[in-house]
Amino acid sequence: MVAAPSQDGSIKPRVTAIMHKIFCFYRWACTAWVAVVALLLNPICRAAIADQKGIGFSLEKASPGTDVPQVQTSLGMRPYANDLIFVAGIKQGFYKDVGLSITPAPYGRKVLPDQAIPLLVNKQVDFMALYPPDVIATMDSVKNIRFIALTDLFQGFAILARPGSNVKTVGQFMADGLGFNEAIKRTMSQLEGKGFVTAPVVDNRIFLETVFSLAGMKMDKDTKLVVTPDATALQLESGGKVDFASPTGAPFTAQLRFAGWISLVTPLDVLANMPAGPGSPTAALVGTPGVACDADWARQHAETVLRFTSVMFRIIEQEQKNSELMLRSMLDYVNSFAGTSLDISGLKLTIDALSPLSNFDFQKNYFDNQNSALYYRTAFDAAVKFNVDKGVLPKSQYDADDVIWASDVYHELLALKQAADDALQRVEGKSLSAENQALVEKAKQFHAWYDYLDAYRLLRAATQ
Q1: DSSP string, 358-406
Q2: pLDDT at 17 exceeding the cut of 80
C-alpha cells in the first residue's frame, strides 16, 4: 500500500478503501499563464503530424542484424525528484547497456518548469520529463508533443501549516463529527487573511482551485498570496515569513513535512470524500508524470524510444528492489538542482510515498484496465473538460491519442516481449551453434533489462 499523509502530519498507510478510489493526483491546473505560453510557441506545432497516432513501430519493422546501435540522445529534466530518476540510470550505466548516451553530458539538461514545453516545441531536446496536463492545456496550439511513457503516481500536493500553528486538519474536523463539506470550509477558513505561498507554475493549481472552491474562497482574494518558486518559498517558510504553503515539487513537500509542517488537506482527502471516476469533478485530480518527445522525432526514432523506455522500467525496478543504491546515486543531484537539503530518508519519502514509481506490470492500470481510476483516457477527458470549462481550450473534439502515445509504446513492448518469450521456448533444450547460443544468452540479458526490442532481434537471428 502506498503511504500518504495522515491527520497528525506523519506518513502512514491509508486504508485500502481510500486507495481503491485513487492513487495519484495531477500536478497541474489551467491558468492564463498556460495560454500565454501556447501563443508564444513555434507555428510548426500546427503541422499535420496531429493526424498520426503512435510511433509507427511493429515487429516486422525491427531492424535486422544483431548489433545494438550506439546513439546519442538528449534528455531534459525539471527540478522534481520523479523527473530526476533518470540520473540514477545514467550513473548506473543502464543507458550505455542498450547503446544510448545521454546528452548533454554528464546527466542531461537541467530545465526550469516554464522552459520544458518550448524546448520540445522547438525540437531542442529529444526526451523531456514532463506532466501531461501541462501539455493538454496547450493542445489547441501545441500539436507536436507526445508522451511516450508514464513514470509515476504523483501524490505530493498539500496545503501545509507552519509547525506549532493552532490549526486543525480536515481529518480532525471530520473526527469531531463534521461532514466533509463543512470540514473543508472550516479547514480552509484558517487561511483567511494569512500569508500563503505557492509556486508560479500550473502544476498544483487544479488541486488548489478545488479546495478553495469547496470552501467558497478565492486563493488570491482571501489569503495574503505570495507566488514565488519553491526554492525561494522555502526561504520564506524557514524564516517564518508565511503561515501556509503549497509546494509544487515533492522534494519541497517532503522537506517541510520532515520539518514539522502540518498537512491540512491533500487531494486524497478530497477524493476519499467525493465521488470519483468518469464524469466526476474529481476525475481531473487523477494523473501521472511521464516522458515526452516531439512527434516527428519519435516516429523517426521509434527504436530509440523503445530502448529509452526499457531503461525507464529498469530504473523503476531497481529503485523498488534496491532503493538505497538508486536513491543515493541521485540524492546530491536532486538537492543541488531543486535547492533542497534532503537526506536519503527524505528522498525515499519523496519517491516512495509522494511519487511512487509505476513498474512495467502496473502500467496495465493506465492502458488496459478501462475501469481503473488511472485509465489514461478517463484522466485525459477530465483534463480537457476542466480546460474547456475554464476557457483555456475551445470546445472541440479532443483525442487522448493525440497527446498520449505511451499506450502504443507499452503495447509494442508487450508484443516484443511475447515474441521474445515465444522464441526462447522454441530454442529451449535445442542444440545450437556456439554463435547462436551466445546470441540467446545475450538476448536473455536484454530481456531482463526490459529491452525486449533487442532481445527479440537477437533471438530472431539465432533461430533463423
Answers
A1: --TGGGHHHHT-TTSTT-HHHHHHHHHHHHHHTTSS-S----GGGTB-H
A2: no
Q: For the chain, what is the mean pLDDT?
A: 87
Question: Beta strand 145-150 with 290-294: parallel, antiparallel or unpaired?
Answer: antiparallel
pLDDT digits (tens, 9 = 90+) for 232-254: 998 898 888 999 999 988 888 88
Indicate the length of the chain as a whole number.
464
Positive or negative, the CA dihedral 235, 239, 245, 249 is positive
Q: Which of 269, 312, 335 is nearest to 406 (CA)?
A: 312
Measure CA 42 to chain center: 25
Q: Which residues contact 367 (CB under 8 A, 6 or more apart)?
A: 375, 376, 406, 407, 410, 411
pLDDT digits (tens, 9 = 90+) for 324-347: 999 999 999 999 999 999 999 999
**Nearest-CA neighbor of 459 among 417, 423, 415?**
423
| 3-state SS, residue 71 | strand
The whole-angstrom separation of Cα 366 and Cα 409 is 12
d(CA 374, CA 369): 8
pTM of this prediction exceeds 0.85:
no
How many CB atoms within 10 Å of residue 336? Answer: 11
Position 344 scores a pLDDT of: 94
Cα distance between residue 46 and residue 143, in whole Å: 5
Where, residue-wise, is CATH 3.40.190.10 in the chain?
A: 3-13+157-266, 32-155+285-409
Could you tell me the fold of the domain covering 32-155+285-409?
D-Maltodextrin-Binding Protein; domain 2 (3.40.190)
Q: Are 25 and 101 in contact (CB under 8 A)?
A: no
Question: What local confidence, expressed as pLDDT, does residue 280 receive?
Answer: 66
Task: Evaluate the omega torsion of the peptide bond into residue 163 and state whether it is cis, within 30 degrees of 0.
Answer: no
> Rounded to an integer, what distance in angstroms lies between the CA atom of residue 40 and that of residue 50?
19
Class of domain 3-13+157-266: alpha beta
Place of cell 498507510: 13
Q: How many CB atoms lie within 10 A of CB 34?
A: 27
